[in-house]
Amino acid sequence: MLSKVGMWDFDIFLFDRLTNVMVQEDYHSQNPYHNAVHAADVTQAMHCYLKEPKLANFLTPLDIMLGLLAAAAHDVDHPGVNQPFLIKTKHHLASLYQNVSVLENHHWRSTIGMLRESRLLAHLPKEERQDIEQQLGSLILATDINRQNEFLIRLKTHLKNQDLKLEDAPDRHFMLQVLKPKGKSKIALKCADICNPCRLWEMSKQWSERVCEEFYRQGDMEQKFDLEISPLCNQQKDTIPSIQIGFMTYIVEPLFEEWANFTGNTPLSENMLNHLRRNKTKWRSLLHKQHSSSSSRSTDHSVQKTENEEQTLNEGGTL
Ligand SMILES: [Zn+2]
C-alpha cells in the first residue's frame, strides 16, 4: 500500500481503513469532511506535488518538511463549521482573530502548540524555530479560500513574466504557498487542499458528499437556532451537483490550469485536469437528471445558482 503513495490514483479511504493513524487525535472524527482523512488526503496530494520536477529540483529538505507538515496540520481542530458561522454566533475564535482568517489562524496556532509540545524542533536555535513557525503560518493561512484570487493573480503574473526564480527561497515558498520571502509551496498546498475534484470519480464523489453533508449540518444548526442559513448550507436548495459545478468552475479549474502551466503539463497535471473535466461532466449530467425529474418546477433555480456561485463560494467556502 505504502509503495503506491506516490501515485495520483492512490485510494486514501483504503489507506484510512488500513492504518487508522496520522495526526488523528487533534482532528474531529465526527466531522464528515474536515477530519483526519482529509488531512491525510491533502498530505498525500502534497507529496505528489513536491515530486513534480519543476519543484523537486529546487526544494530543500526543510521546504519538504514544511510542506508536508503544513499539509498534515492545515485543518487541525476544525470545528466543522465555517468562518461566517463562527462570526455570527460570536464564537471566541472569531473575536480572538478579529474575524480574519479565523479558522486558518486557529489551525496554525494549534499546530505551533503541538510542535512546541513535541519538542521536535527543540534542538534548533530560537531564530530558526521562529522562522519555521512563521513559514508554517504563511502556508496554512494561504489555504483560506477567501484569498484564492489573490494567489491566482500572483501566480498568473509570475508565469506571464516568467520571473519565478526557484533557486530563491522566497519564490520556492510562494509555490509551496505563494507569497513573500521564503515561499514557493503555498500554491502546492492550496492545490492539495482543493484537489478532490481532480481525483478518480469514485473518490471525488465521496469527498463531494462529505463536504456537502458538513455544509448541511451547519445549515440545520442555523435553522435550529433561527439564524439565516449560510450560502451552500441549505439542503433543500443547494444540491450537491450544483455546489460542485460552481466550485469546480470558479475555484478549482482556474487554479489547476495555472498549476499545469507552472509544472509544464506533466502526466500528473494532465491526469488531474482530465479527472476534473470528466467529473464535471458527471455532475452536469446528474444536475440535468435532477432537473428533468423535478420538471414540475417552472424556474431553474439550480442553474441560475451556479452562475452566482463564485461569489457564494468565496463568501462561504472554507476547505
Ligand atoms: Zn483543508
UniProtKB/TrEMBL annotation:
Keywords: Hydrolase, Metal-binding
Record protein name field: PDEase domain-containing protein
UniProt keyword Nucleotidyltransferase, yes or no: no
InterPro entries: HD/PDEase_dom, PDEase, PDEase_catalytic_dom, PDEase_catalytic_dom_sf, PDEase_CS
Pfam families noted in UniProt: PDEase_I
Compositionally biased spans, kind Basic and acidic residues: 298-308
UniProt keyword Hydrolase present: yes
Chain positions covered by the region annotation Disordered: 287-319
PDEase domain boundaries: 1-290
